Amino acid sequence: MNRKIFTLLFLGFCATMPLAQAQTEWEVGPNTTLTEYDLVTGVNLPWEILWGQDDYIWATLRTGKVLRIDPATGNYTEVLSITVTGDGSSEPGLLGMALHPDFPNTPTVYLVYNSGSVWSGEERLSAWEWNGTELVNETILVDEIVAGGIHNGSRIIITPDNKILMTTGDTGDGGVSSQNINALNGKTLRINLDGSIPDDNPDPTSYVYSFGHRNSQGLCNGPNGIIYASEHGQSNSDEFNIIEANRNYGWPNVEGACNTASEQTFCEANNVREPLKEWSPCVAVNGIEYYNHPAIPEWENSVLMSVLGGLGGQYERLSILHMSDDGMEVDSEQQFFSSFNQRIRDICVNPYDGSIYVAFNGTSYPGSGPNIIKHFVNEDFTAVKSPAAHSNQNIEVYPNPVEGRATIEFSPEFIGTNYMIYSFTGQLIRNEILDGSAVQINGDDLAPGQYYVKSTTQYGTVTRTFIVK
Ligand SMILES: [Ca+2]
Ligand SMILES: [Ca+2]
């Protein structure tokens, strides 16, 4: 059941309730409009979001938590909480995630995180078992990768040949490690699902698959076995690359294309793979996802690329990189969602209805909460199949935006639990036990701005954003 149907049913249940949720429409092409919803809010700080084979959205929070989110309702449970470097308040923390390619039969979740002190910590790739409730029984696959206060990567994906690809950063060492083939930093690593080294790696005694990277934080599978990656440049030349075995991506000798005399000399001597596209000054490119769904025909055969917006936060957007038919070149770039003025960290795609989910990371480096995961759906597209809602618990605020008096309606599961109202400046406005199915708020008592309601039951947590005019 999609959100719209759920909302309509909910409205039908409460016959007098007006439109439950503010909806913004986004025209993304001549024939396609996306409707915006807030899926989850008040989470700090979503780093990886992916669509699992169990039809849930799985999210890492840099602060060390993994959430499993029902895409139909936004109801989520916290399935892991670990201690990470600096509590995830700066670049290190819990980063990339991937699910086993046969997750229904082998429910393993792969995670990358940093532990230890900020400037002399380590990066670790681990496998965890999903027991239906939480992630348990950590198995460390690769550890003691040098970590730093900056540039730790790390996205992970699983390729069609069932290998883990993992990006690692130069940890701010100026690129010394990137060109050192014996270091695991500044690389794309290729790893068997059990943590061993694939015997068809460029060097069968090394995880290193490609090198000369600065800090790649975007990685996705494309068509025909193509691997796409985004990579942060220093102040110029953010890159969009195709990752190929045993190729040198140039850092620190080459930034972006081989287009200066010294770069051309280095590139010729070292078989450097140039990016497909580069951006100067840096815009801070991040999570990427290949899109080829008929729900948004204007975006078919494209790579969706999250853009954080740089240190000043002035370039944030979702970029649509339209690819050539063979996937080997970027034909053009479109930009959306800049008007949120929010760092965009990652995207995932609903494989049934082609809708997209976007994780936001606040307005400034290195990101701060509360953050939102938004959903953008073409409601004119009819999916062949849609996953059912996994629970019925829900919270609605109406009218929304709030002007004067408004009602917060809770489904019966919440009665007897605490509910909280927070402002987006972090202030707790209300924390009370819910003794009925609805409570009243008066927008005249609240400063104009964005707020959210949050409540948790044994089935999980629901959040709902509302605006006070
Ligand atoms: Ca490069
Ligand atoms: Ca260059």
Concise structural overview:
The chain is mostly beta strands and 469 residues long. The chain has helices at 3-13, 261-270; strands spanning 24-29, 32-43, 46-51, 57-61, 65-69, 76-81, 94-99, 108-115, 122-130, 135-146, 156-158, 163-167, 187-192, 208-211, 218-221, 227-231, 238-242, 277-279, 285-291, 302-307, 317-323, 330-336, 344-349, 356-360, 371-377, 395-398, 405-410, 418-423, 428-433, 438-442, 449-457, 460-468.
User: Which segments are poorly predicted (pLDDT under 50) over 5 or more consecutive residues?
Assistant: 1-20
The total strand number stands at 32
Query: What's the domain count?
Result: 2
Report the sheet with the most strands, covering strand number, pairing sense and barrel closure: 5 strands, antiparallel
Give the distance, in angstroms, between the N- and C-terminal Cα atoms.
Answer: 31 Å
What is the mean pLDDT? 93
How large is the count of helical segments? 2
CATH architecture of the largest domain: 6 Propeller
Radius of gyration: 22 Å
Task: Tell me which ligands are bound.
Answer: calcium ion
What is the CATH third-level topology name of the largest domain? Neuraminidase
Strand percentage: 35-45%
Which structural class is indicated by helix and strand composition?
A: mainly beta
Q: Tell the overall outline.
A: globular
Name the CATH superfamily assignment of the largest domain. TolB, C-terminal domain
Give the fraction of residues assigned to helices.
under 10%
